[in-house]
Amino acid sequence: MARKKDELKELKENLTLKRKPVWDQLSQKEKKEAETLARDYLKFLSQAKTERECVEVMVELLKKRGFTEDPSPYCFTVFRDKMLAVMVAGKKPPYYGLRIIATHIDSPRLDLKLHPLYEDLDMAFLKTHYYGGIKKYHWVARPLALHGVVVKPDGTRVKIAIGEDPKDPVFTICDLLPHLARKTQGDKKLSEAIPGEKLNVLVGGLPLVGQEEDKDRIKLSILKLLNEKYGLTEEDFVSAELEVVPAGPAVEVGLDRAFIGSYGQDDRICAFSALAAALALKEPLYSTLLVFMDKEEIGSDGNTGAKSRFLEKLVYDYLKMYGVTPGGDTVLETFLRSKAVSGDVTAGMDPHYMEVHEKLNDARVGYGVVLTKYTGHGGKYMANDAHAEYMAWLRRIFSEAGVVYQAASMGKVDEGGGGTVAKYLASYGLDIVDLGPPILSMHSPFEVAHKADLYMTYRAYLAFLSAGD
């Protein structure tokens, strides 16, 4: 009888999949590395709340490490201030294939309309149009900041960031008190309780000195303040990109500080991890291309999104740096020889909402970076579905590099789904798969990630970029 129990134990040990928390598998040195990475990440999140700010912060980090905009083994390219490409030369020229990581740096938010400023009941407001998939009720009754840029007809750029400095005022969107909300909100679906047209930001309430019967004295007061500080007029809103985002810095969450809480972790946790991996990369075999993209949250459209042909231009220029005269077939051949990762987050299982999760196949927070073979929705529509050979190759390099990973999908089959940039890069014929950490409260103004998953995402990207054949 004892022999059979020993056999069962041996079979279980040798044949079954074991998932263990990352923290249980780290050495003290690795735990210190994870904490250092988390501190750097907190600073990054606090500084980079828009796609333009992400590019600015990452360029600053690149320049400090010797990267240049001029063609060189360590270089970068900025496109329209919202898209960034980073290149690290490998021992093999790009024609033999690239190691590509594509992430996105836009996040759900509220954008100001073209004519946003108005006054009603002696209060001034800014009208907004939400960007990406949000729950509208998340954005009311909370401190908000205004970030962005205004471009004047003469080309002058005015940067705006109000609500982050402790001395700054903040903004808010007012909600209806529960005493009056029973019919207006309480009897409605959650998705309908806060109409998009009521996401109007409170910005002022003090009138200019004048006669009481004078109209729009508070609106004029706000315009006067904007003109005195930034030189703006009301018409300048037409050529502005101003985003309303949650106010305040990224913070540690929990008594043990295990988590990071912040706006914009989808997908800046992947962008930060990819950049950190590139900065740590030393003499890779294959040449590296990192692409930080815009517009993913609204379908990757536009000339700074994954559907643009900018990626082709990057590969074209990369080949020229090595003296290759690229033709259409040369660029395509380079893509076909390349391997890629779509750096994007997935849903972490929340024990309070297990009715939408599939426990065997969904991601656990704190259990490592997530390898997502396919995304899309019911029937795998609109998804890239990575090949078994590519999944096996990634398993091997992760095992060799000591990367703790989990293979997971996102939710029960008919509960919904999501998309990434993977399918757009797959159209070039390269192998690609989604790889990123699990997130709690995804697409909310305060997303939550585990420090251990951040660390393993960085380690996974570094292993990918460093790998040989």
List keywords for this structure.
469 residues, alpha+beta, Aminopeptidase, Aminopeptidase i, Domain 2, 2 domains, 6-stranded antiparallel sheet, 21 strands, 23% strand
Summarize the structure.
With 469 residues, the protein is α+β, with helices and mostly antiparallel strands. It contains 11 helices and 21 strands.
CATH topology of the largest domain: Aminopeptidase
Main sheet: strand order: 1-2-12-3-13-19-15-17
Number of helices in the DSSP assignment: 11
Q: Could you say what the CATH architecture of the largest domain is?
A: 3-Layer(aba) Sandwich
End-to-end Cα distance: 47 Å
Helix content: 25-40%
Main sheet overview:
8 strands, mixed
Which residue ranges are poorly predicted, with pLDDT under 50 across at least 5 consecutive positions? Answer: none
Radius of gyration from CA coordinates: 24 Å
Output mean pLDDT: 95
Number of domains: 2
Give the helix/strand class: alpha+beta
Total beta-strand segments: 21
CATH superfamily of the largest domain, by name, is Zn peptidases
Q: What oligomeric state best describes the polypeptide chains here?
A: single chain
Shape: globular
CATH class category label of the largest domain: Alpha Beta
How much of the sequence lies in strands comes to 15-25%
Keywords: Aminopeptidase, Hydrolase, Metal-binding, Metalloprotease, Protease, Zinc
Pfam families: Peptidase_M18
Cofactor: Zn(2+)
GO biological process, one term: proteolysis
